[in-house]
Amino acid sequence: MSFGPGAEPLFTYGTLQLPEVQLDTFGRLIPGEDDVLHGYRLEWTEIDDDRVVRVSGSDSHPILRRTDDPRDRVFGRVLALTADELDAADEYEVALYRRVSVTLASGMRAWVYVGH
User: What does pTM read for this prediction?
Assistant: First the structure.
């Protein structure tokens, strides 16, 4: 997948991969490319934001925790977002998450939402 100028790569591992969430959040379906993030593990957290629960269909969402253990890895997809779509993703993610820049197994730098 080619990320053109101005594209904001976002590594997704949970509900942002769902078609209904993409349509509601971005207004379109976004193609992605498989990748892996090492040094993190997947946990689950309860979501109490009614809009996010309604759009995703679940009140339990995955969340990443940094471990720095290279054996820990999370599989996901990288989406090429516009700056406005990245802002929309920020709005979708609740306060339990923060966006950080990481290097994926492919060598690509991307944004990802992790737990505080």
Answer: 0.87
